[in-house]
């Protein structure tokens, strides 16, 4: 059975790398996530990854302590590059060929983001990890995922979270909450379901780029989404 998508963009939060730790990168959690990604690479699917930096530094947290927002955001971007390097190294150890591209120029450490080169890497079967968000303050890594997904011609953005989809209410607080299998962009906006930040959500909607929200910690979930099975919540036009 063939995969439902040829090229995807996975949005992975920095917090996902923490596992049960208070901060930083949990090696076992990182290895699990890499194994989930490898199961999809083995299907022949081309994968780009946008990674956050919240496990190391959160821009908004920095701003709340009196730091200038732009400075805090740039620090957050550097944290995403650190995560991208750790993810790339873990992929190499798992037998995957990965490349890190950064929206900020750090030539001695990682290569700069060049759209044409990123697409060529994908066509060659390499996983491309995009670090440093959009390279601009005041934009989240959600927006970077929507932007990079559009730029590389991804067929879908997969938002990897701790929850296995979008629910009618918080399932931890409301036992009667039910998961949406599918929901339109307009309905998600009307219900004020915070799938992504507003800028990212609007970009995906305008570019007719669907989003699937799923749990990265549910074994096999990523592969089931890619195979087109009823996993997570599909947000569509």
List keywords for this structure.
single chain; 237 residues; alpha/beta; Carbamate kinase; nine-stranded mixed β-sheet; 9 strands; 18% strand
What can be said about this structure in brief?
This protein is of the alpha/beta class.
Describe the structure.
The chain is an alpha/beta fold. The chain has a domain at 7-163: 3-Layer(aba) Sandwich (Carbamate kinase). The chain has eight helices and nine strands. Strands 4-3-5-2-1-6-8-9-7 form a nine-stranded mixed β-sheet, sandwiched between helices. Strand 1, helix 1 and strand 2 (46-51) form a beta-alpha-beta unit. The two termini are 26 Å apart.
| CATH topology label of the domain at 7-163 | Carbamate kinase
Work out the number of β strands.
9
What is the CATH class designation of the domain at 7-163? Alpha Beta
Structural class: alpha/beta
Stretches where pLDDT is under 50 for at least 5 consecutive residues are: none
* CA-CA gap between termini: 26 Å
CATH architecture of the domain at 7-163: 3-Layer(aba) Sandwich
**Order of secondary-structure elements:** EHEHHEEHEHEEHHEHE
Across the major sheet, the strand order is 4-3-5-2-1-6-8-9-7
Radius of gyration, CA atoms, in whole angstroms: 17 Å
Q: Could you tell me the strand content as a percent range?
A: 15-25%
Question: Helix count, per DSSP?
Answer: 8
Largest sheet: 9 strands, mixed
Shape: globular
Provide the residue-averaged pLDDT.
94
CATH superfamily of the domain at 7-163: Acetylglutamate kinase-like
Helicity range: 25-40%
Write the layout of secondary structure elements.
Elements: E1 7-12, H1 27-41, E2 46-51, H2 59-64, H3 69-93, E3 98-102, E4 111-112, H4 115-123, E5 127-131, H5 141-151, E6 156-161, E7 182-184, H6 185-190, H7 198-206, E8 211-215, H8 221-226, E9 233-236
Parallel strand pairs: 1-2, 1-6, 2-5, 3-4, 3-5, 6-8, 7-9
Antiparallel strand pairs: 8-9
């Amino acid at each position: 059975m063939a995969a439902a998508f040829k090229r995807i963009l996975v949005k992975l939060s920095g917090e996902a790398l923490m596992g049960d730790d208070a901060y930083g990168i949990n090696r076992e959690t990182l290895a699990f996530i890499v194994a989930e990604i490898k199961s999809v690479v083995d299907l022949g699917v081309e994968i780009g990854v946008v990674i956050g930096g919240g496990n190391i530094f959160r821009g908004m947290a920095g701003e709340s302590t009196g730091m200038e927002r732009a400075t805090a955001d740039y620090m957050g971007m550097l944290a995403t590059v650190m995560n991208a390097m750790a993810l790339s190294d873990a992929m190499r150890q798992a037998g995957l060929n990965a490349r890190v591209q950064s929206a900020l120029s750090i030539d001695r450490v990682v290569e700069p983001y060049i759209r044409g080169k990123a697409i060529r890497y994908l066509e060659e079967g390499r996983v491309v990890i995009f670090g440093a968000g959009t390279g601009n303050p005041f934009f989240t890594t959600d927006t970077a995922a929507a932007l990079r997904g559009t730029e590389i011609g991804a067929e879908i953005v997969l938002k990897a979270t701790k929850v296995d989809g979008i629910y009618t209410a918080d399932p931890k607080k409301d036992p009667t909450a039910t998961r949406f299998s599918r929901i339109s962009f307009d309905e998600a906006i009307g219900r004020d379901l915070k799938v992504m930040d507003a800028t990212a959500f609007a970009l995906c909607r305008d570019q007719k780029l669907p989003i699937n929200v799923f749990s990265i910690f549910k074994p096999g979930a990523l592969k089931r989404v890619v195979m087109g099975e009823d996993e997570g919540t599909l947000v569509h036009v």
